[in-house]
Amino acid sequence: MVNNCKESVWPGILGNGADPSLKGGGFHLGSGEETVVQIPKVWSGRIWGRQGCSFDKQTDKGSCQTGDCGGLLQCNGIGGVPPATLVEMTLGTSQSKLQFYDVSLVDGFNLPVSVKPIGGCSDPDSNSTDPGAGAGAGCGIASCEANLNVYCPSSLVVKSKEKVVGCKSACLAAKTDRYCCTGEFAKTCKPSVFARLFKTVCPRAYSYANDDSAVLKTCVASRYNKQFERALALYDEGTPDRWQNIAKEVGNKTVEEVKKHYAILLEDLSSIESGRVPVPDYDFKENMDDDDVER
User: Fold this and answer.
1) Cα angle 9, 205, 191; round to 5
2) Is domain 224-274 given the CATH code 3.30.465.10 in the classification?
């Protein structure tokens, strides 16, 4: 996670269902700072940025101008108060090798956000024409990198000390089935003029609940271990240039990298046989009319 803003942000993290809210659910990230968040092999949840926060150093209690979660630094299972730009992700399941992620403006906007995968590959069954699909070896970019607050209609503006800090969605502002795509409008909901504005400024983000599913990005989870184990069986210990052949078989790996990975597998095996850890699963398996809008 990287903060490219000129001021501090306080990321909030909320796991779905029984999934954990990582790093206590929230922390401070100064301008230009970055941190690595360790995520379980299978995880689903949401991440958002909070801004304008102030917390007591002794109690970690305080408040944020946007995205506040009960006045706590570590949200601990509490969601952020909208409007807030959301990153939503499901990183693998026990039944699927696919990973999904998106940026959503359904609950409004407060900060520019983007999700840019490193490595991986897109869904082999996907025929996406998204201009961001070339990034991350095929995995598309989900984002709203523009400052939507600049374009926010006055009826949706959220201010703090006369400064625009957020922009409500039509659903958040009106709280009706027509704008939230619920009730009798669940399947027939069309984008409002506000949703169309959001879409024009941020085409790679969900602008309303029934938005085009193309903004939901799909990645195939890592299959490196499966390829590696196949290569080990193919090139046994008596094979000349064994490690060079294995590196070539798995692709884009050096001899040093595959040897290091082999050492890790041996260490895991030793831990399993000693009963210190459970067996790891190396095979990561598997539309409103304009006239309906209050101007």
Assistant:
1) 125
2) no
pLDDT digit string, tens, across residues 134-157: 333 457 889 999 999 999 999 999
Give the pLDDT confidence of 17-38 residue by residue, as tens digits. 899 999 999 999 999 999 999 8
Query: pTM of the prediction?
Result: 0.70
In the predicted model, what is the mean pLDDT of residues 239-255? Answer: 79
DSSP state of 293: S
Query: What are the residue boundaries of the structural domains of the chain, listed by start?
Result: 10-220, 224-274
Residues 169 and 192 sit within 8 Å (Cβ to Cβ): no
The CATH homologous superfamily to which domain 10-220 belongs is Thaumatin (2.60.110.10)
Residue 128 has pLDDT above 90, yes or no: no
- 186-193: long-range contacts, CB 8 A cutoff, minimum separation 24: 188/287, 189/287, 189/288, 190/287, 190/288, 190/289, 191/287, 191/288, 192/288, 192/290, 192/292, 192/293, 193/290, 193/293, 193/295
* Helix or strand run (H / E) with residue 89: strand 86-91
